[in-house]
Specification:
The chain is an alpha+beta fold. Helix content is 21%, strand content 36%.
C-alpha cells in the first residue's frame, strides 16, 4: 500500500479519536511504521513485480509499478518496541519464484510524541541497487523523490 493512502487513512482515523484535551495535539495522525523509498534505477522492468516488506513479525505485500522511485510502508502496532530489529525487503520479478532483491538491516525506531501523551514510532529507509537497504537516505533518493513530487504537483496544477 502506498504511504500517501496510508497517511490519509491514518489521519482520518486519528482525527476521529484525537485526545480529549482542549489543547491541540501536534502529532495527530502520527502512525507507527517503517517506510522504504525504493529507487528502481538500475533494474529492468519491475512492473508487476511483487514486493514484501517485513518488520516486527508483520509483513506487507503488494505489486510494483514501473517508476523511478516508489514509496512503500508497513504499519506497525502503536505499542511497538523501539528496538524493532530486522527489517527485510524483498522484490520478486513477475513470473519468477526467486527474489531479485532480498535485503535486510537492523532498525531502531524514532518515537514522535503527539503532544497529548501518545505518539508513534517510525523509521524511514532507502533501497538503491548501489547501497542496498539503509537508514541513511542517499542524495540520489532525495533528488528522485523531490523530482517525483514536483512532477505530481505539475500534473495536479494543469488539471
Amino acid at each position: 500500500m502506498r504511504l500517501t493512502v496510508l497517511a490519509a487513512v491514518s489521519v482520518v482515523a486519528m482525527t476521529a479519536s484525537a485526545c480529549s484535551s482542549s489543547k491541540p495535539c501536534a502529532g495527530v495522525g502520527v502512525v507507527s511504521q517503517v517506510g522504504v523509498m525504493f529507487l528502481q534505477r538500475g533494474y529492468t522492468d519491475l512492473a508487476g513485480a511483487s514486493y514484501e516488506l517485513c518488520a516486527g513479525g508483520r509483513c506487507g505485500k503488494g505489486h510494483l509499478e514501473q517508476e523511478d522511485i516508489t514509496q512503500l510502508s508497513l504499519r506497525l502496532p502503536d505499542d511497538v518496541d523501539e528496538h524493532l530489529g530486522t527489517v527485510r525487503f524483498r522484490v520478486t520479478p513477475k513470473g519468477s519464484t526467486h527474489p531479485e532483491i532480498d535485503a535486510s538491516t537492523d532498525v531502531k525506531l524514532t518515537h514522535q510524541s503527539d503532544g497529548c501523551g501518545g505518539g508513534a514510532s517510525s523509521e524511514g529507509l532507502a533501497f538503491t541497487k548501489e547501497e542496498g537497504l539503509t537508514t541513511k537516505i542517499p542524495p540520489s533518493v532525495s533528488t528522485a523523490w523531490r523530482k517525483h513530487l514536483t512532477s505530481l504537483a505539475s500534473t495536479s496544477e494543469s488539471s
